[in-house]
Design goal:
Radius of gyration: 24 Å
Number of strands: 14
Strand content: 25-35%
Bound molecules: adenosine-5'-triphosphate
Order of helices and strands: EEEHEEHEHHHEHEHEEHHHEHEEHE
Number of helices: 12
Structural class: alpha/beta
Helix content: 25-40%
CATH architecture of the largest domain: 3-Layer(aba) Sandwich
Distance between the termini: 52 Å
Length: 340
């Protein structure tokens, strides 16, 4: 659906060159919610502007639905951009137009007949939950309502791709969740491909299928959300994972606890179906050993739960090997973090 091949963007003001996006290659599948996370200055905004053709890459190509956006010009680029919509952090509404008029605007520009516009606006108002607010002015709306208008407006021309640029960063946590639920609902109902950029891991955890982590213009880590949460490889990814409250630093397992105990401490990491199994109970019954739970945490993502449990047990070498084999068999990652 979306293919970025070796994309680089260098800004050169004559004195110094700055590489904002550095050799990025990504593929986003049709119907996916794809997150791009990074701190300020990582290159996310530049990357999203390359996706909708607002910036031309210095090197590489951007292809959306088989069309090469990076080399499209004039009318071809204009037509392609009609199918790539954007939702902004600060809503970017027209303040002198009502809710309905804001939503209608891009259809008027595209020359859609009036009766069709009226029907589509009513449909979109319903979809984003703004019934009764059709004639309100943007200044009369809450932040969440403004973003609902922004989303309705972005959907007006039935886009193939919805780009969200920090769409919830100006909202409070409760409103953020409502807007994320709306985006997730739209994605499911219309199989609309969504690419969102954010600096909040909560957004990724709540609605993304896959995620790319950006640092200094590069994608340093990429994968499905559950794998990234359970096996973050890069220090920056670990920092983002810790951002999510359940994984906050103060709730991390205290390694001193393991050092003081005789025997073995195993960290179990489970995802998906394995979170529903009474694993510790099963192991206790099978081996007749008392497992002591030292620490545990669970996190919900768009693809189900994942969790980690730290257990302490005194077992023979043979029992321990069997326990680890059993865990592997049940799709649970068992890591001995202290032995003997
Ligand atoms: N038009 C431009 N001219 C020169 N430098 C630019 C331009 N646009 C972005 N940059 C630089 O490119 C780098 C990446 O910026 P970008 O806005 O893409 O990052 P970001 O991850 O979106 O951060 P933020 O969330 O703060 O916008 C920054 O160092 C920025 O100063």
């Amino acid at each position: 659906m979306i293919e970025l091949r070796n994309i680089s963007k260098v800004f050169d003001n004559g004195k110094a060159a700055l590489t904002a996006v550095d050799n990025v290659s990504l593929t986003v599948e049709q119907g996916e919610i794809y997150g791009i996370i990074g701190y300020s200055g990582a290159g996310k905004s530049t990357l999203i502007r390359l996706l909708n053709g607002l910036e031309k890459p210095t090197a590489g190509s951007v292809t959306i639905n088989g069309q090469t956006i990076s080399s499209a010009k004039g009318e071809a680029l204009r037509q392609a951009r009609l199918k790539i919509s954007m939702v902004f952090q600060h809503f970017n509404l027209l303040w002198s137009r009502t809710v309905s008029e804001n939503i209608a605007f891009s259809m008027q520009i595209a020359g859609v007949p009036k009766t069709q516009i009226k029907r589509r606006v009513a449909e979109l108002i319903e979809l984003v939950g703004l019934k009764g607010r059709e004639n309100a002015w943007p200044s009369q709306l809450s932040g969440g309502q403004k973003q609902r208008v922004g989303i309705a407006r972005a959907l007006a021309n039935n886009p193939d791709v919805l780009l969200c640029d920090e769409a919830t960063s100006a909202l409070d946590p409760q409103t953020t969740d409502q807007i994320l639920d709306l985006l997730s609902d739209i994605n499911r109902r219309f199989r609309l491909t969504i690419v969102l950029i954010t600096h909040e891991m909560h957004v990724v955890r709540k609605i993304c299928d896959r995620v790319a982590v950006m640092e200094n213009g590069k994608v340093v880590e990429e994968g499905d959300v559950l794998s990234l949460f359970t096996h973050p490889q890069q220090p920056i990814t670990r920092q983002f994972v810790r951002q999510v409250s359940q994984y906050a630093e103060e709730e991390a397992f205290n390694p001193d606890l393991a050092r003081e105990l005789p025997g073995t401490v195993i960290r179990l990491t489970f995802t998906g179906q394995s979170t529903h199994r009474p694993v510790v109970g099963e192991l206790t019954l099978r081996y007749g050993l008392p497992f002591n739970i030292l620490h545990g945490k669970m996190t919900q993502t768009a693809h189900g739960l994942f969790g980690q449990l730290w257990v302490h047990v005194t077992a023979t070498e043979e029992q321990l090997n069997n326990i680890l084999a059993d865990l592997q068999h049940s799709d649970i990652d068992g890591e001995v973090i202290k032995h003997g």
